[in-house]
Design a protein that fits this description.
The protein is mostly helical. 79% of the residues lie in helices and 1% in strands. The mean pLDDT is 81.
Amino acid sequence: MKKIQAEKGSKKLLNAWAFYDWANSVYTLTIASSIFPIFYSALFKTKDQLVSAFGFEMKQTVLISIITAFTFLTVAILSPILSGVADYVGNKKAFMKFFCYVGSLGCIGLYWFSLEHIHISLLFYFMGLIGYWGSLVFYNSYLPDIAFEDQQDAISAKGFSMGYFGSVLLLVLNLAMVMKPNWFGFDIGETEASLNKASFEAMKISFITVGLWWLLFSQYTFYILPKGVSTGAKVTRNVIFNGLKELQGVWTKLKQDVRLKRYLAAFFVFSMAVQTIMLMAVYFGEKEISWATDSEKTTGLIISILVIQLVAILGAFVTSKASAKFGNIKTLIAVNFVWLCLCFYAFFMVTPMQFYIAAGLVGLVMGGVQSLGRSTYSKFLPETEDTTSYFSFYDVAEKIGIVIGMVIFAVVDQVSSMRYAILFLFVFFLIGIILLFRVPKEDVD
């Protein structure tokens, strides 16, 4: 029996799309934001120990910044090419699946991450990161296909909220494994060293749970989402580079659309800073906050991560309501101002309590700026069936921004400290606010 395709705007289709956030957000929370940074730090004997990779010695956080920047550069180059192929063959769901599976396997591979085999270990880290962001290129492009304009803010916020809620559920399980390994059958022995070894093993097991969660829960989304209209044509050399031509075409059209062009410029700048902070926040807390003991540090970082995720659920909905009342652009300006203030606050943070306060504020504006940034762009798009190309351009702009942000962060971190690296990012929020003020109102709100 042929499967009946869900109609655009239907509750079934909207929920299936949003459910992918439930599936993949465990990567950003457990791998990118919480347990992996703690695990990575535990590999070194001291905070100041340098790491050797690719023939260079560098700070621990600088290596992660460089690999992250390289991954986003790869996504920025590949996404327009793959989007062009997806448009031509009419099956962007297949590409979304491919990146999902690469990312899932990368997470599982982190179980074997070690300094002795640093290059293959970094490959697994690269796979997880490129899998997550690569799949989002196609996931985001579905938004105007599955939702009408008046539904997009709400379903975008719902997706992020489902992601935060689902990822917190798995994180709580993973953190229980790390903090109470004996509850899960790990041999903790009778010494603190044995307990630390058991917790370390629990962290490695958590990477496997993330990969399996992402892999399994994504299947519902893949089952419901339409794959597109297949042309049945073969993929040739011209088709492969068709995406780059489409990107150039989008750029030409953007020059004639003042509102969309100015908004994208603002998004490019403030997203650069937001994503850099989110990717490096836990590393900052691990290195720069004065924790009394290693145990307090692990517990404190875990608490701050949970605070961020739980508050982010509220933040996404509050931002959605605010945008409905005050308009998307005004709300984004307010959110960016909070981020700007957070950069100054972070520079002076020393105590765990100050870090917890920052975590709460980050959570409040994190979900809001992501969901509203995505839905505002979707609402500004001209009438077109070629949404993938426009969202490919959006994703390329975001990824190149992250590359620039991470490289700047790494350079400032290497020559001075992470405090000055965070402080410097306030410049991008300030520029972002100025650019948002220049976006024409028209029928934006």
